[in-house]
Amino acid sequence: MQDFILHWGEMGSKWGLNRSVAQIHALLHISPDPLTAEELAATLNLARSNISTGLKELQAWRLVRTTRQLGDRRDYFTAIGDMFDLIQTVIEVRREREYEPTLNALREIQGRAEQDDTPPEVRARIAETYETMQMLDDWYSDIAQLPRSSQMSLLKVGSKLGALLSGSASKPKKKKKKS
Fold first, then answer.
1. 67 and 76 in contact (C-beta within 8 Å)?
2. Which fold has domain 2-79?
3. Contact yes or no for 96/88 (Cβ under 8 A)
4. Fewer CB in a 10 Å sphere around the end CB: N or C, the chain?
5. Strand 72-79 vs strand 64-69: parallel, antiparallel, or unpaired?
6. Where are the domains of the chain?
7. Using H for helix, E for strand and C for coil, what is the string for the chain?
8. What pLDDT digit, counting tens, does each position of 46-81 carry?
């Protein structure tokens, strides 16, 4: 459990999350029961204020939910348990925070570049960048609307198709170690 939490904290810091925020998420992710902020602070040996700040950030990422229990005034916290839902949530939040604003900015920049003295080569590069990013976003939106079973089938087919197109279909795949 400790190794998982420590690794998740390291991984989170590489993805732009504060290490302690990622550790809070890790503990909630592997915990079979909802935990209070006090339980999180005690288990992780972090200040209560650090836990509170981390929980707010995780809620902003939509990775943690708050619940209540009858007769108890404390908040209980749970993380998204299903890995597929977790990954989809992270992708969707990052899309909203990072990708969509970039698409909007590129659209505006492209429009202005068409009307000013921007060199044609630069305009073409801006247009190519915008069109490629928009195509990827449209693809993501189409895939995200599919039912989970269809998404899983696409993942499996995509892996086989990638191997086929790269010419490695005849090469045996390396088995991953199970820990």
1. yes
2. Arc Repressor Mutant, subunit A (1.10.10)
3. no
4. C
5. antiparallel
6. 2-79, 83-151
7. CHHHHHHHHHHHHHCCCCHHHHHHHHHHHHCCCCECHHHHHHHHCCCHHHHHHHHHHHHHCCCEEEEEECCEEEEEEEECCCHHHHHHHHHHHHHHHHHHHHHHHHHHHHHHHCCCCCCHHHHHHHHHHHHHHHHHHHHHHHHHCCCHHHHHHHHHHHHHHHHHHHCCCCCCCCCCCCC
8. 999 999 999 999 999 999 999 998 899 999 999 998
How distant is the alpha carbon of residue 55 from its chain centre?
A: 16
Tokens matching residue 167:
């010419």
Residues of the chain with pLDDT under 50: 172
d(CA 102, CA 57): 22
* Residue 177 confidence (pLDDT): 59
Percentage of the chain with pLDDT > 70?
93
pTM (predicted TM-score): 0.77
